[in-house]
Task: structure prediction
Amino acid sequence: MPDQPDAITRLRKMHYVLEDLPETITFPQRPGDEPRAPLPVVNATVDEIAFAIVEAEREGAAAYRRAAMLQRLYTLAREAGCIGADCAAPAVLKQEGHS
Result:
């Protein structure tokens, strides 16, 4: 029936803690493996979900590292006297050259 909500929508409505449940999941890629298409979460096995958790944690750690490095560059640029419209990297490089 066209007016029936799909499985992912029903899961999200049944359990408020699942409101951000993704439509699909991805898996860690090993070198040499063929890329796998994202799998609809409603078709995933418990093991596939566990592998997807590993991948999501890896992605989260990478995003955290990027944010931390951007924060550090921002701090160094401010310490070098930059204001909002200044380019950060050249100012930091110039400051480091004077150390």
